[in-house]
User: Which sequence fits this backbone?
């Protein structure tokens, strides 16, 4: 336990020291504020409060930004140490590999959670102040923050996976970029293409929704949208979410971090520094 | 066998089709300093990584004390200095060493250790601003954590200036005096010569020598060089009498096998006033290393 804590606190120190924590928080804050103010126009026409609109815009933002920020911290976690020559030294100490990985994960996730909470929280507070907020829209905001952290956890662990698999930090960075592109952009494009080809056939009605929530980024979107009527109305994306049982998206987003971390742990076990 | 801090028996390591280590056996007793010499790619670093349990052996076995490599006990009792080590540039030396001390699980005087390796003034500066030698010193400080039973040092002198090297060897001597078995992988032959109790030489994964410097030179039968200065113009006469070669106006050089050395000395001493000076050069480690590391040695 002391070992886990000392790894985690050292990683946290590094994130603070190299200004990553500050930069990530500022990025989140700026984007969330910009979207909140830019997205405040259609409030009257849809008939929901400003916070709901703001949460909808921030959901779209978080799908891109949470995976990106997570991968930016994690791709270097193993490959960087290997490149510096400090990985073999670290592994010669009594700390187990699982302990090391978990320590890094805890610190990175805490930093990510901080940036998300401050960014979305501040934007949400401003939206509520200017445009009003109800109990439901506050819940939607809390859900957005929570699911963003879960989504970040998925991509932190996937980042460790590519970091363990690649020989160099540069290689890991390249793989991370590829990973982001596939999960966040290409997967959706592929599904969209398949739906267009299929028309409204069997695939679109029964296979497509499941394929969609199998991707953590989409599961994140579906969870946030389907759980709140207001958000669903504001986003105009109701159809796909309704075809699924309510537990599908949450289960996907809760299982993914565990699965990805297990994969990363297995890959790290095989690393010979 | 129980007396050894480190026991390696018939270690073999295959990587694909190449054999990196081939039937290597080596023992290091507590307090003993053993130099592990060999060309690049001879298998030194691989051997160290198998001792640390970072790479599994194909065959044979290794014991750290009584523990298996990579086990919790082995990792707690083994200290390691990787070749050309670096640390996270954003941390200070003190923070980095404190992390290692906590991972080691024992109370340690972090400040005292940093002072001991000469980083007293730099301990609160970031490692990113350290020179190569300072990073090496920080690496050495973590070796001293928790009085290890076995210390594995991979090229510990690389990047150090001559004075730092003296400091390094003083620290190694201190470790050994406290009962740590020290294994030093190195190219820096001349320094290892004076500073170790025993020398093991690896060639292409095979151990070709393992003995004290004296015994190794006796086995190799490398000649000792005697350089004799003759007075006046007696150089020719001396050369003729001793069977040596004249190398300039006054000096004669004799190469003699280890067992003929005393005989040659006696003969020279008997020549009286004609001889003004004798300089004796035993075979150096470099000659020995060349002898053993070359093809065709036993």
Assistant:
């Amino acid at each position: 336990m002391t070992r886990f804590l000392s790894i985690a606190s050292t990683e946290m120190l590094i994130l603070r020291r190299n200004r990553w924590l500050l930069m990530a928080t500022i990025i989140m804050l700026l984007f969330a504020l910009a979207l909140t103010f830019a997205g405040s126009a259609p409030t009257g026409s849809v008939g929901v409060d400003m916070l709901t609109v703001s949460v909808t815009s921030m959901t779209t933002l978080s799908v891109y930004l949470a995976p990106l920020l997570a991968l930016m911290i994690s791709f270097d976690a193993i490959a960087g140490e290997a490149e510096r020559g400090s990985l073999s030294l670290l592994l010669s100490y009594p700390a187990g590999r699982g302990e090391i990985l978990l320590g890094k994960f805890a610190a990175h996730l805490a930093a990510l959670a901080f940036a998300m909470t401050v960014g979305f929280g501040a934007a949400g507070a401003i939206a509520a102040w200017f445009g009003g907020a109800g109990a439901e829209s506050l819940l939607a905001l809390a859900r957005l923050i929570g699911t963003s952290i879960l989504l970040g956890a998925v991509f932190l662990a996937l980042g460790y996976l590519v970091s363990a698999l690649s020989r160099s930090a540069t290689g890991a960075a390249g793989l991370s970029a590829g990973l982001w592109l596939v999960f966040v952009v290409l997967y959706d494009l592929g599904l969209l293409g398949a739906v267009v080809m299929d028309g409204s056939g069997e695939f679109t009605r029964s296979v497509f929704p499941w394929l969609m929530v199998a991707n953590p980024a989409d599961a994140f979107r579906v969870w946030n949208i389907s759980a709140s009527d207001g958000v669903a109305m504001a986003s105009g994306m109701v159809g796909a979410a309704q075809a699924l049982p309510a537990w599908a998206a949450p289960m996907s987003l809760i299982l993914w971090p565990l699965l990805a971390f297990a994969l990363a742990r297995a890959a790290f076990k095989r690393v010979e520094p | 066998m129980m007396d050894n801090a480190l026991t390696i028996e018939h270690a073999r390591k295959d990587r694909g089709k190449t054999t990196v280590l081939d039937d290597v056996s080596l023992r290091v007793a507590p307090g003993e300093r053993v130099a592990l010499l060999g060309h690049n790619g001879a298998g030194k670093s691989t051997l160290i990584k198998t001792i640390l349990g970072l790479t599994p052996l194909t065959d044979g076995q290794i014991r750290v004390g009584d523990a298996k490599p990579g086990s919790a006990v082995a990792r707690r009792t083994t200290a390691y200095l990787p070749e050309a080590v670096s640390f996270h540039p954003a941390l200070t030396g003190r923070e980095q060493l404190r992390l290692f001390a906590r991972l080691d699980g024992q109370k340690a005087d972090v400040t005292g250790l940093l002072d001991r390796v000469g980083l007293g003034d730099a301990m609160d500066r970031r490692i990113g601003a350290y020179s190569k030698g300072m990073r090496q010193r920080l690496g050495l400080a973590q070796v001293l954590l928790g009085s290890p039973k076995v210390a594995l040092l991979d090229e510990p002198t690389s990047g150090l200036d001559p004075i730092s090297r003296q400091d390094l060897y003083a620290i190694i001597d201190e470790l050994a005096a406290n009962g740590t078995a020290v294994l030093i992988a190195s190219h820096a032959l001349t320094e290892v010569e004076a500073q170790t109790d025993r020398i093991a030489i690896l060639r292409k994964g095979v151990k070709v020598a393992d003995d004290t410097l004296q015994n190794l030179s006796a086995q190799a039968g490398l000649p000792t060089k005697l350089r004799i200065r003759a007075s006046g113009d007696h150089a020719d006469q001396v050369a003729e009498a001793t069977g040596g070669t004249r190398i300039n106006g006054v000096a004669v050089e004799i190469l003699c096998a280890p067992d003929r050395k005393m005989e040659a000395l006696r003969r020279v001493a008997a020549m009286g006033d004609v001889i003004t000076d004798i300089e004796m050069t035993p075979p150096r480690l470099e000659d020995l290393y060349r002898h053993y590391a070359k093809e065709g040695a036993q």
